[in-house]
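Quick one: C-alpha cells for this chain, please?
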Amino acid sequence: MYVNVYTGMWVDYSNGRITGATITLTARNGSILVAALSIFLVLVGSQFWSILTFDIHWMNTTDKITDILHFQHQATFRNAGTSIGATRELLALPFPWRRRQTGPRDFSVTILRSRAWALLALTNFCVWSTVGPFSCAITRSAGSHFLIAPGTCGIVFDNTSETGLSSKSLSKTIIADTHARGCYESNDSSAQCNSFVQKQLHGPKMQTRTALSGMASARLRLNLTADASTLTTSWVLTRPWKTEFITAGSMSHYGGDIKASSWFPSQESYLPDEDLTLVWLLPNFVFSMTPIDDPFFGFHANHISKRLCQPDNLVNIMACTDQYQVCNPKRQTPICSPVTAAVLLRDNISTIELNPTQNATARLILALNGAEGISSSLGGRGAGALRAGEKVAQSIQSFLPNNQWATEVKNWFAIS
C-alpha cells in the first residue's frame, strides 16, 4: 500500500454518506478481516439455527393429545445440530409410517407436514451457505478512490531542482493531451477514459465567427458534487494576427528602468481582466505542395518558387485570452463572481457567499493551478502542441483546411 494512503474509517461522499462508508486497510490487515469475517458468519449461522429450532420447539409445545409424528418433529428440532442434518431427518420421517396409514391421502398429509419443516431447514442452510462465500464482497472496494493521509496532501514545491516543476508541468500537459485526444474526440470507452469520475467536462461546442473576424469562443464548466458545489467557468477568445515588416537602415534603443514598459496589446485584445497569451508560429523552412488559406498556417506560391508554396509570413501570431469565474449554485438565486483573469479570481471568491466547504474547495483548485488556460497547453512543447505539425514530412506541410487555427485552439482548450 502507498505510504500516503489513509488507513481507517472514512466516507466517500461521491457515493453518498451511507453507501460511501469505507474502511481502508493494508493488504495484511485486509486478509485478516476476510478470514475473521468468514469465521464470524459461520458462528452466526450456527447460532441462528439454534435460536430458530428453539423457537419452533417452544411454539409447538402443547398439552393436547397429538400423533407420534408431532413428537418426532419436536425431537428432531431439539436434537438436530445442523440445518442440513434436520433436513435429512425430516424428509425421512414419513416413510416408516407408510404401512400404518389408512389410505394414500393420509400418507400425503404426513409427507406434506414433514416436507414443510424440511423446506424451512433447507432454506436456512442455503442462505447461510451463500452468505459465507460472498462475504468477501463486503471487502470489495466501492470505487477506485483513496483518502490521502493528513499532512501529505497539498501543493508541490521542489527546491532541489530548477527543472523539477517544469518537468512535472510538461508531463501533466502531455497526459492531458493524450486524454483529450482519446476521450474528448470520440466515444471511446477504454480504461484510459475511465481515469476520472467524469469522462469529459461537457460544454457547448466551440463557436467560430466569420472568417473575416477570425475569432472563436468556448465555455467549460467544472461542477463539484456534494457540499462543495463550486462552479468554475472559463472561456477563450482567439484571433490570428497578420504581421507586417519594414526594412530600416539602423535602429537604436535606450532602455528605461525596470518599471518602464512601452508595449501594450492592441485595444481589441487588451482588457485588464483577461489573461493574454501570444502564440508565435515560425515556419522554419517548411513548405507546402498546395496552397493553404488558413490565416495562421497560410502557404501560397510567390515569385521565388512556382512549384512549392511558401509561408505567407516569416512569423505568425495568434492572440488568446482566458477568463474565469466561480459560481455558487447552492443559493436559491445562484450568484457568480465577475468574469476576470485568474490572478484576480482569488480576490472575488469572498463575494459570492460560499460555505466553508465550497470556499476551501475553490481555493484549493486555484492553488493547484486549476485556472490554467491556453498557456498551460503550450508551455514547453513547442511544435508538439500543433496538430498541423503531425502532417509535416520532410519539411513538406500536407494540406490544411482554412479553419485549422480553430482546430488547434479547440485542442488547446480541451487540454486546459
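The CA atoms of residues 150 and 393 lie 51 Å apart.
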